[in-house]
User: Which sequence fits this backbone?
C-alpha cells in the first residue's frame, strides 16, 4: 500500500492550490450544476425559476446595478420604484456582491434573464468550489474536499429557496474560512485579505450573511486564537486590523441601510420573526419539489423546509465522533476541527430557531438567545427570517462530513476510497435533485404594453403611477413587470415590490381610493401634489373592459388636472399638470399650544371631542356620520394667538376619514371671519405619508399665515358617501 503522508505534510503541498486543480474542480461542479439544473439551462434566456416575484426583482436589481456601474454608481440607491421615497434600493438586497461579476455579462448580452440564470447556476459552482477549497485544505484530502463541496453545493434546502438567488449565493463563506484557516496555519497576512474580501462579498450578496456568517467567523477565530498561545498577541492585532478594514469596506453600504431603516422604521416585528423561524423539526421537512424525499418529508412553513439530506446528516455525525474514536494521520487537528464546526452547527441551529424556540409546534420558551442578539446587535431587527441561519448549520455539517471522509480515507485503499466517494456523491446528488417550474418572461409583453413602454421612453422625465395598482390576480408579477419596464423607459414609479414597502404603496394597496372612480378629482390632485407626472393604465390587466372604461372616463372628466393623453389599444398614458398649489409641510417651529389655552366645541358629537386632545392616538373624535359638508370645530383662545400650523392626526391603519375639503377661518370679534386656508385634504394626507412618517400615523397638516386668532374654526365643506370625518389627535403650534 502506498505510504500515507501526514496532514501537515499535505498542507504544505497545497498552501497554494494549483491553478490546474482549481480549474478542474470548477469544471466538475459546472458540469454537475448544468446536469442537475437542466430545466434551467433549457430555458436560460427566456424564463425564470420559481415565479416572477423575487426572481424578477433580483433580475431587475442586477440589471440596475450594471447600468449604474456605467455611471460611476451615481444615483445607485435611488432605484426607479417607490417614488417619491429616496434610497428605494435599500428596501431590498442590493446584490453588489453578485453584480460586480454579472455586470460585464449584462453589458455584452443585454439580456437580464440570461444573466440571472447564469448567476443562479454559478451559485452551485461557487458553493462547491469554495467548500472544496476549505475542506481539502483543513483535512488534507481531495476526496474529503469533493464530499464537502458536493454536500454544500447540492443541499436539498436549495429546492425551497429556488426563488431566492441571494440566499443561494452562500459560496463565499467557505472561501472566507479557507483564507482564515490558511492565515492561522502559515501566518500569511495576505490570506486575511482573502478572508476579508470573501466576507464582504458574501455580505454584499446577502445582508443576512453579514450576521449569520459573522457568528461562524467568531467561533472559528476564537478557537484558533485560544489554541495558539505564542502567536496570540500578533494574531489579535492582525484580526483587529482586518475587522477595521472590513468595517471601512462595509460602512458606505451600512450607512445607507441604517439611514433608511431610521427614516422609514424598517424593522421587523416579533411576530414576523417568529413566523419565519425554524422549528426544531424543520430540519426534517423538505420541499415537495425534491424528487427523492419531497413527498415523504413535507411540512414546515415558509422558509422552514431545512432538510439537509440523510447522507449529510449521517456523515456529519460520523465526523463529529470519528476523530475521537479512531486513529488518523493527524488526530489532534481533526479533533479540534470537529469540535469547532460542531459548535458552529449547534450555535447556528439555535439562532435559526428565532426568538421563541419550539419543538414540533410546541413552544419551548418565550425567549431565547435570539432576543439577546436583537438587543445588542445594530440592524439585527431588520432580519425577518431567522431560519436562514440554517446555511451556517449546513456549513458546519459539510465540514464535519469531510472530516468523516478523511477518517474513512485513512482506513481504505485508494481505489476503495474513490469508489466510496463516488457512491456518497451520488447519494448527495440524488437527495438534492429537484425541479422547479420555469416561468416564461417576455419583457416586451403584449403589443399595447410594448407601445406604451416605447412612448414613455420618448416622453420628458417625470414620475409615473401604473394602474391597476393592486391587481386582484397576479399582483406581484404584474407589479414587477411594471418595475422591470423602468429599465426601458427610465421613469420612476410610485409602484414597487420588495421585502419592505412604503406607506404610500400600502395606502394605495389597502384603501379603495384608486378603485373608487368617483373620487378621481381627489386622486389626481393628490398625485400632482407628490410630484407624479404620468398615469399609465394597462387595460389588459383589469378584470373586465367595463372597469377600464369607467376609470378612463373618470380621468378624462378631470380636465383641470390633465396636460395630455395618449391611447395604445387597451392602454392609456395621461400626463398631469404640475401642481398649482404649494404643499410644503410646515416645520415644527414655535411651541405647541397647551390644551389649557383654549376651549373647544364641535358641531357633531361634542361629548367625544376631548378625545382629540387626550394624547392617545387610539381614541378619536368623529362626526359620527358620513361627511356632509357641515362639520366644524371651534377653538376659543384665552388670548389672541398667532397659530402657525395645525395637524390633524388620522388612524394608523385606516386613512379614509380625512376631511375632503378643509376650510380654516379666524376671527378676533366672533363676527368677521377671515379665511386662512382652504384646500383638499387628500394631497396633504399623501404628503404626510411621504415626508413625515411618525410611525406611519398619517395626518393632514396645514401651515397658516400670520394671524391673531381669538377663535379658530376648522370646517369640513365637502361630502362623502361613506366616510366620517375623524380626528385622533389635534395639535396646534404658536408662531
Assistant:
Amino acid at each position: 500500500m502506498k505510504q500515507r503522508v501526514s496532514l501537515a505534510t499535505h498542507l504544505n503541498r497545497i498552501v497554494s492550490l494549483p491553478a490546474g486543480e482549481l480549474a478542474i474542480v470548477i469544471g466538475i461542479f459546472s458540469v454537475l450544476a448544468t446536469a442537475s439544473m437542466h430545466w434551467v439551462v433549457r430555458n436560460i434566456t427566456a424564463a425564470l425559476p420559481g415565479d416572477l416575484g423575487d426572481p424578477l426583482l433580483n433580475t431587475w436589481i442586477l440589471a440596475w446595478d450594471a447600468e449604474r456601474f456605467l455611471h460611476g454608481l451615481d444615483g445607485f440607491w435611488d432605484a426607479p420604484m417607490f417614488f417619491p421615497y429616496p434610497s428605494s434600493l435599500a428596501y431590498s438586497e442590493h446584490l453588489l456582491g453578485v453584480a460586480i461579476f454579472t455586470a460585464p455579462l449584462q453589458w455584452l448580452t443585454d439580456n437580464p434573464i440570461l444573466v440571472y440564470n447564469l448567476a443562479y447556476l454559478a451559485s452551485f459552482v461557487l458553493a462547491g468550489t469554495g467548500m472544496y477549497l476549505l475542506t481539502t485544505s483543513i483535512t488534507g484530502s481531495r476526496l474529503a474536499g469533493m464530499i464537502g463541496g458536493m454536500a454544500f453545493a447540492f443541499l436539498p434546502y436549495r429546492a425551497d429557496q429556488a426563488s431566492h438567488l441571494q440566499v443561494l449565493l452562500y459560496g463565499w463563506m467557505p472561501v472566507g474560512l479557507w483564507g482564515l484557516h490558511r492565515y492561522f496555519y502559515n501566518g500569511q497576512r495576505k490570506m486575511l485579505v482573502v478572508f476579508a474580501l470573501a466576507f464582504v462579498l458574501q455580505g454584499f450578496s446577502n445582508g443576512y450573511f453579514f450576521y449569520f456568517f459573522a457568528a461562524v467567523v467568531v467561533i472559528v477565530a476564537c478557537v484558533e486564537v485560544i489554541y495558539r498561545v505564542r502567536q496570540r498577541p500578533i494574531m489579535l492585532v492582525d484580526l483587529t486590523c482586518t475587522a477595521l478594514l472590513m468595517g471601512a469596506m462595509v460602512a458606505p453600504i451600512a450607512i445607507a441601510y441604517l439611514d433608511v431603516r431610521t427614516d422609514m422604521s424598517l424593522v421587523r416585528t416579533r411576530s414576523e420573526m417568529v413566523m419565519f423561524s425554524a422549528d426544531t423539526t424543520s430540519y426534517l421537512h423538505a420541499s415537495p419539489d425534491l424528487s427523492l424525499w419531497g413527498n415523504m418529508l413535507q411540512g414546515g412553513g415558509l422558509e422552514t423546509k431545512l432538510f439537509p439530506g440523510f447522507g449529510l446528516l449521517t456523515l456529519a455525525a460520523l465526523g463529529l465522533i470519528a476523530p475521537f474514536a479512531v486513529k488518523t494521520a493527524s488526530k489532534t487537528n481533526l479533533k479540534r476541527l470537529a469540535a469547532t464546526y460542531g459548535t458552529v452547527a449547534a450555535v447556528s441551529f439555535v439562532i435559526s430557531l428565532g426568538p421563541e424556540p419550539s419543538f414540533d409546534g410546541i413552544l419551548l420558551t418565550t425567549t431565547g438567545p435570539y432576543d439577546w442578539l436583537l438587543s445588542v446587535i445594530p440592524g439585527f431587527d431588520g432580519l425577518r427570517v431567522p431560519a436562514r441561519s440554517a446555511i451556517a448549520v449546513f456549513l458546519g455539517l459539510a465540514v464535519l462530513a469531510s472530516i468523516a471522509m478523511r477518517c474513512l480515507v485513512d482506513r481504505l485503499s485508494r481505489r476503495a476510497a474513490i469508489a466510496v466517494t463516488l457512491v456518497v456523491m451520488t447519494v448527495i446528488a440524488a437527495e438534492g435533485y429537484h425541479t422547479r417550474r420555469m416561468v416564461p418572461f417576455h419583457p416586451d409583453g403584449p403589443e399595447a404594453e410594448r407601445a406604451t413602454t416605447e412612448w414613455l421612453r420618448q416622453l420628458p422625465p417625470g414620475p409615473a403611477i401604473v394602474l391597476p395598482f393592486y391587481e386582484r390576480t397576479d399582483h406581484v408579477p404584474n407589479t414587477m413587470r411594471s418595475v422591470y419596464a423602468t429599465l426601458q423607459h427610465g421613469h420612476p414609479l410610485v409602484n414597487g415590490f420588495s421585502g419592505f414597502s412604503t406607506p404610500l404603496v400600502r395606502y394605495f394597496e389597502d384603501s379603495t381610493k384608486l378603485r373608487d372612480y368617483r373620487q378621481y378629482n381627489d386622486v389626481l390632485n393628490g398625485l400632482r401634489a407628490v410630484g407624479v407626472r404620468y398615469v399609465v393604465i394597462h387595460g389588459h390587466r383589469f378584470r373586465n373592459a367595463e372597469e377600464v372604461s369607467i376609470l378612463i372616463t373618470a380621468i378624462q372628466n378631470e380636465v383641470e388636472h390633465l396636460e395630455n393623453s395618449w391611447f395604445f389599444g387597451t392602454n392609456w398614458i395621461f400626463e398631469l399638470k404640475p401642481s398649482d398649489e404649494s404643499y410644503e409641510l410646515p416645520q415644527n417651529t414655535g411651541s405647541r399650544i397647551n390644551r389649557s389655552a383654549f376651549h373647544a366645541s364641535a358641531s357633531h358629537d361634542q361629548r367625544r371631542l376631548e378625545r382629540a386632545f387626550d394624547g392617545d392616538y387610539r381614541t378619536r373624535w368623529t362626526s359620527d356620520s358620513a361627511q356632509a359638508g357641515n362639520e366644524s370645530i371651534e377653538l376659543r383662545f384665552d388670548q389672541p394667538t398667532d397659530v402657525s400650523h395645525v395637524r390633524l392626526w388620522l388612524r394608523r391603519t385606516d386613512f379614509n376619514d380625512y376631511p375632503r375639503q378643509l376650510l380654516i377661518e379666524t376671527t378676533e370679534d366672533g363676527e368677521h371671519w377671515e379665511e386662512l386656508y382652504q384646500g383638499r385634504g387628500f394631497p396633504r394626507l399623501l404628503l404626510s405619508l411621504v415626508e413625515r412618517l411618525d410611525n406611519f400615523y398619517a395626518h393632514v397638516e396645514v401651515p397658516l399665515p400670520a394671524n391673531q386668532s381669538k377663535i379658530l374654526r376648522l370646517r369640513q365643506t365637502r361630502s362623502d358617501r361613506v366616510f366620517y370625518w375623524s380626528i385622533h389627535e389635534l395639535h396646534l403650534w404658536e408662531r
Q: What stands out?
A: The two ends are 94 Å apart (CA to CA). The chain has 26 helices and 19 strands. Residues 447-576 form one domain.
